[in-house]
Specification:
Bound molecules: adenosine-5'-diphosphate, magnesium ion, zinc ion
Catalytic activity: ATP + H2O = ADP + phosphate + H(+); Couples ATP hydrolysis with the unwinding of duplex DNA by translocating in the 3'-5' direction
Domain Helicase C-terminal: 298-443
Number of helices: 24
Main location: nucleus
Strand content: 5-15%
Number of domains: 4
Shape: globular
Low-confidence stretches: none
Helix content: 40-55%
Oligomer: single chain
Family: Belongs to the helicase family. RecQ subfamily.
Distance between the termini: 99 Å
Mean pLDDT: 89
Largest sheet: 7 strands, parallel
Strand order of the largest sheet: 3-4-2-5-6-1-7
Enzyme class: isomerase
Length: 574
């Protein structure tokens, strides 16, 4: 009947639809699978490129070639405008990569010649190169240098006049800009909407030829100099995707570099790195005398004997230390001045200026004195107390000998300073680990200092000889092996005993040394034969090996570090 056949017919239709949906589903599933596969392929390729050293992947490309369309002009401009005879290591590679439109990160030690890698392309480009630089004093130095070479450059900062700003803004969109380089602070990018709008116009007009970011490691929180304003710089690649970015830094571990790429939105940036080794620097560690006057006497003798007319830096732990050291040096006829973060900007540049023109010999500084110091003839960098990490030390000591001539990098290594530092850095994520490495560097009387530094940075300097340019290679220490197990056990039991007596009796590092020396009640025979300085070395070694650890106690005014048995203590007891 009619109804039945209608039903039959609909059933057939439904079945057909279902089967066509089935086959559509099939093909969609197939497509999904294909896309999934492609997705993971792409992801792993991206990961591979991002994480592996990009220079390997671009191995086919020879960045040092001189067959690029610009190669001839490049060389002639190097000679005629910059009055330089040849490129230094990595300069040509970096310039070629950047001029090919690639994003680049250049890690090159201080004084290596990073500026040329964006200044030279800036001359050849038709538009303008924006240089992001963290310090106004740095910019002024650069502007002066460029002006002397007859290169037009401008800067925008808080003290720019209205007319200057107006002129710069006009030029940014003009067919023939009146300058090649524009220096700005990172704050300009993060805070000035007006400037960003102008940059946008500059880009649209095809005038934004390159963006250079100096001290680019400031973008990463993993580095030493994190600056919040740098974090925003990722906006540049997003807004101006076709403008190559070149980031420059003197120190960057692999971790910091990777992080920097992420923050700048330049995952495919090529990384170029020159060897970290500074062959003209003599590295030395000296045991620090206990009294301030003895340390100063040693320092004064060192300076008067070897550097009577040479400029140097003495890095100190705190503002107070800076003042103490500086006034002691002045009393003994060595002209010095203090530099730290709390100085008024005017005073800072006055001190810097006096030092630059040699009217003072020594700057006593906290680590606030650093970035942008490009005095070439610094003959010594003395650390009145150890740095908080090897990375910091490399950077601070690296301000010596930028002219390539011999210079001294000396640390006065004192036991008490270790705990001054530890109570400061304990709040930082990797603070204590970093400090530990620094202490190991100072404790070591056998290994080449260059080797210790290269190992820290994960580099292999085997092929580089030290040429006896460090205290250990120069044979300045005698050492012999003795078994100190029982002495260390005795130190440990002294500490345990004190701990058992209760909270209030715990021992600081200094108190442990005192107890070991036999003052107080805790005389121990095993320790009697060792000097205080030997006991100190044992304690630091035990901390490194985790036989001991620091236990921090907060008071309203300070942090105290007590020594307590560490996770490995039982290994020493049994
Ligand atoms: P960085 O920024 O890497 O610390 P700079 O760019 O300030 O170093 O350069 C340090 C010094 O080296 C400057 O005086 C510069 O003129 C000089 N310099 C750079 N490249 C060369 C080169 N190829 N030949 C000679 N001198 C150079
Ligand atoms: Mg520089
Ligand atoms: Zn050595």
């Amino acid at each position: 009947n009619k109804i039945e056949s209608d039903l039959q017919e609909e059933l057939i239709q439904v079945k057909t639809s279902l089967s066509s949906i089935q086959s559509e589903l099939q093909s969609l599933l197939q497509r999904q699978e294909n896309l999934q596969e492609r997705k993971s392929q792409l992801e792993s390729e991206i990961n591979r490129r991002v994480s592996s050293s990009s220079s390997q992947l671009d191995g086919e490309q020879d960045w040092s070639s001189e067959d690029f369309p610009w190669s001839k002009t490049l060389r002639s401009t190097l000679n005629s405008t910059f009055h330089m005879n040849d490129f230094r290591p990595k300069q040509l590679e970096v310039i070629n990569a950047s001029m090919s439109g690639r994003d680049v990160i250049l890690i090159m030690s201080t004084g290596g010649g990073k500026s040329l890698t964006y200044q030279l392309p800036a001359i050849l480009a038709k538009g303008i190169t924006v240089v992001v630089s963290p310090l106004v004093s740095l910019m002024e130095d650069q502007l002066l240098g460029l002006r002397n070479l007859g290169i037009e450059a401008r800067s925008l900062n808080a003290s720019s006049t209205k007319e200057e700003v107006k002129h710069v803004h006009q030029s940014m969109t003009s067919q023939s800009p009146s300058f090649r380089l524009l220096y700005v602070t990172p704050e300009k990018i993060s805070k000035s909407k007006r400037f960003m709008a102008q940059l946008e116009k500059c880009y649209k007009a095809g005038n934004l030829s390159r963006i250079a970011i100096d001290e680019v490691h400031c973008a990463s929180q993993w580095g030493n100099d994190f600056r919040p304003d740098y974090k925003i710089l990722g906006i540049l690649k997003r807004q101006f995707p076709n403008t190559p970015i070149i980031g420059l830094t003197a120190t960057s571990t692999d971790k910091v570099t990777l992080d920097t790429k992420k923050i700048l939105n330049t995952p495919f940036a090529l990384v170029f790195k020159t060897a970290l080794n500074r062959s003209n620097l003599f590295y030395q560690v000296r045991e620090k005398a206990l009294s301030h006057d003895d340390v100063i006497a040693d320092m004064v003798e060192l300076i008067n004997t070897n550097f009577s007319r040479d400029a140097g830096i003495v890095y100190c732990f705190s503002r107070k230390n800076c003042s103490e050291v500086s006034s002691s040096l002045n009393k003994r006829g060595i002209k010095s001045a203090v530099y730290h973060a709390q100085l008024e900007p005017i005073e800072k540049s006055r001190v810097h200026q006096m030092w630059t023109d040699n009217s003072i010999q020594v700057i006593c500084a906290t680590i606030a004195f650093g970035m942008g110091i490009d005095k070439p003839n610094v003959r010594f960098v003395i650390h009145h107390s150890l740095s908080k990490s090897v990375e910091n030390y490399y950077q601070e000591s690296g301000r010596a000998g930028r002219d390539g001539l011999p210079a001294l990098c000396l640390i006065y290594f004192g036991f008490a300073d270790v705990f001054k530092q530890s109570t400061m850095v304990m709040t930082e994520r990797t603070g204590l680990d970093n400090l530990n490495q620094m202490v190991q560097y100072c404790l070591d009387l056998k290994s080449c200092r260059r080797n210790l530094i290269s190992t820290y940075f994960g580099e292999n300097w085997d092929s580089i000889t030290c040429n006896e340019m460090c205290d250990t290679c120069a044979g300045m220490y005698e050492h012999s092996n003795i078994d100190v197990t029982s002495a260390c056990q005795s130190l440990l039991s002294t500490i345990r005993l004190a701990e058992q007596k209760g909270e209030g009796n715990r021992l600081t590092g200094a108190k442990v040394v005192e107890a070991a020396a036999g003052r107080g009640k805790n005389k121990t025979l095993e320790l009697k034969k060792f000097s205080a300085s030997e006991v100190q070395r044992m304690i630091m070694h035990m901390m490194f090996k985790e036989f001991l650890r620091e236990d921090f106690h907060f008071t309203p005014y300070s942090t105290i570090s007590y020594l307590v048995p560490g996770p490995m203590a039982s290994a020493l007891t049994s």
